[in-house]
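pasting for ref
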Amino acid sequence: MTTHDLYVAAAYGITVLVLGALIGWILLDQHARRRELAELEAAGIRRRSDRKKTAKP
């Protein structure tokens, strides 16, 4: 393997690690936001968009 091959392999490896970390972070954050929404809805707080659907003209 040449120096160039090692550089390319390292660049791809770092990219895979960074993308994996970002995907993991997004999934963890999504889980936290869904849990927060569920807690708010359980407390009786509803979304504004839900009011428009249930409001009678």
